[in-house]
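In line with agreed milestones, the collection of sequences with tokenised folds has grown. A representative record is reproduced below.
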Amino acid sequence: MADLRLDFVVTPTYDNRTFNIVDTSTYPNDPPEVTEPLLEVSIPGFETVTGVFTPTDINIVDSLFLGISEVEEDLQPLPDGVYVFRYSVAPAYTTFVEKTIMRINHLQEKFDSAFMKLDMMQCDANIKREQKVALDTINYFIQGSIAAANNCATQDASRLYNKAFKMLDDFINRGLCCGTNLTRFY
């Protein structure tokens, strides 16, 4: 018989209003006999919320679950930033698993829009190369932010996210961010 081992995976939904939390736990019984399974979510810019977690299922976390919206018909986009998820069970909630992730949906949408505006057929190869390097650099900071959050380095994750955001704004507004302009972001 297996021991209780709590675990979950946060999967992409490609919807800026939701998270999918998939229970990948190992339970000693089938169906699982756990008491008061709870999901606690720390949300950037909001209070931490706690709700019921459904074992062996996909748990959808949206603005209604998080208390940002009051009715299902009015689901709001979830903010970008560092989220901390904690799945625990009674007694005393000492059996738990906790994961930190960086949500970048809004930043990714902005990056995708900038990328799509890049003229891939531009005749001036040097300008095209400079713009590609700029977007690659921004993407590097975005990926660094995700990696930092995955390793619970929340301050680094936020700092890298903010750098990527500022660099992307600069790229969109002026078409610049790299080369001599990159040093001001460090």
Remarks:
- The longest strand covers residues 81-90.
- Residues 8-103 form a domain with the Immunoglobulin-like fold (CATH 2.60.40).
- Residues 177-186 have pLDDT under 50 and may be disordered.
